[in-house]
Amino acid sequence: MDSRSALNDGNKWHSTHKIYGTLSELHTARAASERRMESLPVPSVQAMVAATGGAHVPPRYLRPEVAADAVASDGEAAIPIIDFERLLLHHPEEEEACRGESARLHAACQEWGFFQLINHGVPDDVIEGMKANIEAFFGLPAETKQQFAQERGQLEGYGQLFVVSEDQKLDWADILYLNTQPPEHRNMRFWPDKPDTLRSALDAYSAAVKTVADRLLGLMSISLGLPPEGIASKCGGGGIQSVQGLQVKRQDGSWVPVRPLEGAFVVNVGDILQIFTNGRYRSVEHRAVINAERARLSVAAFHSPSIHATIGPLLTDQEPMYKTVDHQSFMRLFFSAKLEGKSFLQRMKLNLDTASATTTN
């Protein structure tokens, strides 16, 4: 649930023309109805490419300043790799291995805010089925995709997210955003029925990822000295599964490319966990980099707060750094924020000199 940025026009891609293209994403969220929250309508990136052959990119999509950023080269840095199977070891003779992996998970959340999760148990056919169906959806004619376009006052559907003004910079992306878990929060009006296996693939994938995420959050809670259900009772966990192109920003300002392992999930701590852990676990800025040779498809599974949850620090061993707000206030604040660095977290921070520990503003 954090910022993604595109590079300047010299680095855009198109899978056919190799000049410009689209960043197609499926965002799946465990969230309540987001009525009265919306993203301003913008033209489809894929439609613009189809109309011009990639000959023109509007200035709102150009990020020439990004080209000057330092990016780590191969061998310089890599995000941590966490083995999910080792985290779940129970036999006494496996206790040391489990503790070691738990320590690596704790350190990854504190120091990186990102890690790759291997041996997560989600079947390959579930993952590949999800990828194939979403790729097929974004390959459909524009008029077919528009049948599932976002409507006024809604975030769900085909379009973009976090567009709150007419002059802000935009992602070079087309997005399909859907509430998937729990099933009773699904609005099937926006669930594409083309291709005809997409709905069943999405149902299987979202259920499998939720199972992994809930167990992972339980392990994080234990590492923080909370009850196993401490974080999961507030929200589920999330992950991103994508082709190469994701970059993570380090504290020194450099960017580290994420080189995804075959079958791994790339897990992002995110803003909500930084708030729940009172800053102990880090939400870091990240971006999707476009390349000139191949399309980039990402399936991002966001596990957002329960509609009954209050969002604020759960750890009580230090003074709260963030506000505590109700769910509706949190979601309105989050989706009204531009994707600019960590501006949302700054808006959630308390002024410790004058503010009380709890507010519902």
TrEMBL record:
Oxidoreductase as a keyword of this entry, yes or no, is yes
Q: Which branch of life, at top level? A: Eukaryota
Residue intervals passing through the bilayer: none
The Fe2OG dioxygenase domain is annotated at 171-305
Give the matching InterPro entries: DIOX_N, IPNS-like_FE2OG_OXY, IPNS-like_sf, Oxoglu/Fe-dep_dioxygenase_dom, Plant_2OG-oxidoreductases
Q: Which GO terms describe its molecular function?
A: metal ion binding; oxidoreductase activity
Q: Which UniProt keywords apply?
A: Iron, Metal-binding, Oxidoreductase
The family classification in the record reads: Belongs to the iron/ascorbate-dependent oxidoreductase family.
| Protein name (Swiss-Prot/TrEMBL) | Fe2OG dioxygenase domain-containing protein
- Which source organism? Panicum hallii var. hallii
